[in-house]
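Pasting as-is:
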Amino acid sequence: MGLSTHVLDTMHGCPAAGMQVTLYATEGDAATLIKRLTLNHEGRTDAPLFDNASLRTGTYRLTFDVAAYFKARGVALPEPNFLGRVHLDFGIAHADQHYHVPLLVSPWSYSTYRGS
């Protein structure tokens, strides 16, 4: 399976359909863009971010455009937003395993974990 993600909108109790997500490879403070995508109606990507053949050990960052998503849903957010973008930095130690990086998010909080 490689690398996958999905986002659940905990404010509305639904998948975060339409949220913009960006994947980077990181090395120290440097980040190299790998891909940008929009989550589907299930709050997931249409395909793995990396399949088994292309996943490599290393460090990565997923950036989720939380404020834009909630604004598009009609949520009145203060300026500045409490959460604008959520950046999750994580490591891939075993490229032969599946890494799933979900995000549970509201305009004021988020949580993540290594899923299955």
